[in-house]
Amino acid sequence: MFSRLQKKMKKFILLFSLILAPASVYTEDFKTKLNLSPSSNSHKRFKREWIWNQMHIMEEINSPLPHHVGKITSSSRNKNAMYVLEGEYANSIFKVREDTGDVYAFERLDREKKSEYELTALFIDRTTNKSLEPPSRFIIKVYDVNDNVPVFVQKVFNGSVPEMSPVGTSVTKVTAVDADDPTVAGHATVIYQVIQGERYFTVDESGVISTATADLDRENQSTYEIVVKAKDSPGLHGGDSSTATVIITLSDINDNFPTFEQQSFHFKVFENVRVGSEVGKLKVQDSDDPQNRNTKYNFVRGDYRDTFEIIPNAFTNEGIIKPKKPLDYEKIKEYKFDIEATDPTVNMRFFKPGGTKSIATVTIEVLDVDEPPIFSQPSYVYKVKENYFTKNPLGTVLAVDPDAAKRKIRYTLRRSSPSGDYVKVSNSGDIFISKHLDREASAWHNLTVAAQEIMADSKLSDIESHTQVYIQVLDQNDNAPEFAYPYEPKVCENAAPGKVIIRISATDKDETLPGVNFKYSLTTEDSNFTLVDNHDNTANVTVKYGQFNRELVKIHYLPVIISDNGTPELSSTNTLSIGVCKCDEKGEFTFCEEANKQVGVSIQALVAIFICILTILVITLLIILRKRHKKELTVLRKSVAEIHEQLVTYDEEGGGEMDTTSYDVSVLNSVRKNGMNLESGPCLYAQVKKPTRNGNSGTGEMAFMIEVKKDEADNDGDLLPYDTLHIYGYEGAESIAESLSSLESGSSDSDIDYDFLNDWGPRFKMLAELYGLEPNEDFVY
């Protein structure tokens, strides 16, 4: 069957090539095969050129290799010529018969790997190896066979579509690719089919998946997993196929109404719960996603709907009940009302049977707590004149027990500003003035008063409430006006009459209200100055006669009386010190003397100086006492027989590591001579015996010397209590010089001649002098 199809295909290709080929192709041989009579000019000589059919070959041919591709032919009739192929695939995949020009393929070709091959044909002389025709390039095309299965670009596809979407709503698109030639009809055509989940979804020829039903409910099933098959058109393999999985998720829409989980709710809450805090939660069911929940809670029956509010929480499907105003157990002990839950944003097109609203009964029970007293006013304001004192109360604060017990109240002053006992509060809440109040010191007195309930056992309750009391001190005219600044005016000697020296103003510690006027006057008219009132609470000091003589008077003192128009009218006398100066022609001061100023020290400075002096005296006294104490301690130490003495005796220099028998340490704790114990009090004396060469004990010189040194240390009061005695009596058994001490000059060691020390140099000069003395002399260091 396939061979017949191949033969027919070759004949079709041959005819199609001849139609497209140039006229020169039709040689006698071709015309004879095609039953074409030669023309009259058949014996005419033509130009030599290549002649062959256009070459094609089917891919994946099942017949044995090699496969005939085509034939290349030259118009030359040289029997000594041969055909040769050149190119990338020449003589490997493709080969040509040298004598006939038939081209063969020695491998099965795959169009999906390479669809065409470009080769070069040569016609050369066998003898000379020269080309008889110019080289010619030609292409061998590989015909496609429908031999590839469509393959999906991915194994798993994902899609999403809103629930309850109409039929035909697009979800997603799947894609499968066929490697066959798309230009050949039917070879690359892919047919899609849903083989699992076809009840809910369909797929068209382009791979678009759509809904097949309109009742896809996310609340029943949120995801679907379907299988899509991609099938090839019938071909070489009979239309094979591949599959892919598509996971489709239904997105939520608001298509469900909220419903209460129970028909009634009961909550208990203390009456002192804060406004806006949580009282209880109403649980509802809404299967939609949180972003599609829009539950609204409404009061449908019952009073006090203005007392509470319900805040929805879409994520928890709850309604939070919160008080909008304070609760009072003594007024209302229980709240009861019906709540409706609904969702006004539900799309009625997707309405499901079951009702659009849900109603539940809510009961809130208020629990009693011991509340603090409540003041009749949030704050109290009283006014009192300064310097006013009376035993009568200035006012009264009042608080009551809001609970049913109605306990008595006790009041306490917690804080006052300014501090001080200016104001007192009685247990009954009366406010008294205990001192004269000065407005200039403080115009307001602010008090914090606490109220506490008196319990049954006469103890005060732990909880209390507070109120603020403000006392305003009203002004009285009790301060006279005075200079606003410490003026230091100056005047020229040649100042003309009427010359303004200075403008003065006044200040008053009392409250300066509109309409307050200050008057200025002189205590006497016998002065060379006058005052001119400016009618704005200021006055000008002017020259009256002039002709000042600073040689006679350098400073003029001008008393000025300043009075106010208060009730009662108050005045004060202030003195201006006017210095007389020399001036130039322009009236500018050239030489002045400072006015005599009162030199003094303030009380605060005197107090500080006194404190410093007192501190220095105390420190000095402490130093003296400390020195005296140390002196007494020194005398006390001297009075003790011996506080501590350490006696270190060196009986020898040491003989090195081999000298292990130099000391007898068994007698370190006591020293005895002729049966007498030399230990005294807390002191420790040690006698170190030098072993003699014959093994007998020492002669006792060391013990005698220790006793002498001990007596000297005990009787010398100028020495420190720590006494150190160094005795060099023995060098060591291994020393070449034997003993260097003169303490044993009476022994047999004195026979040694120490004159060799003089030969040892300057370093041993002192030692040579010591041992050059008489043997009976002893040295103690």
TrEMBL record:
Regions that span the bilayer: 605-625
Annotated compartments: Cell junction, Adherens junction; Cell membrane; Cytoplasm
Keywords of the record: Calcium, Cell adhesion, Cell junction, Cell membrane, Cleavage on pair of basic residues, Cytoplasm, Glycoprotein, Membrane, Metal-binding, Repeat, Signal, Transmembrane, Transmembrane helix
Gene Ontology process terms (BP): adherens junction organization; bicellular tight junction assembly; blood vessel maturation; calcium-dependent cell-cell adhesion via plasma membrane cell adhesion molecules; cell migration involved in sprouting angiogenesis; cell-cell adhesion mediated by cadherin; endothelial cell morphogenesis; homophilic cell adhesion via plasma membrane adhesion molecules
One cellular component (GO) term of this entry: cytoplasm
Coiled coil regions, renumbered to chain: none
Residue stretches making up the Cadherin domain: 69-152, 153-260, 261-375, 376-483, 483-591
Highest taxon above the source species: Eukaryota
Signal sequence extent: 1-27
GO molecular function annotation: beta-catenin binding; BMP receptor binding; cadherin binding; calcium ion binding; cell-cell adhesion mediator activity; fibrinogen binding; protein phosphatase binding; protein tyrosine kinase binding
UniProt xrefs under PROSITE patterns: CADHERIN_1 (PS00232), CADHERIN_2 (PS50268)
Mode of membrane association: Single-pass type I membrane protein
Role: Cadherins are calcium-dependent cell adhesion proteins.
Name of the protein in its database record: Cadherin-5
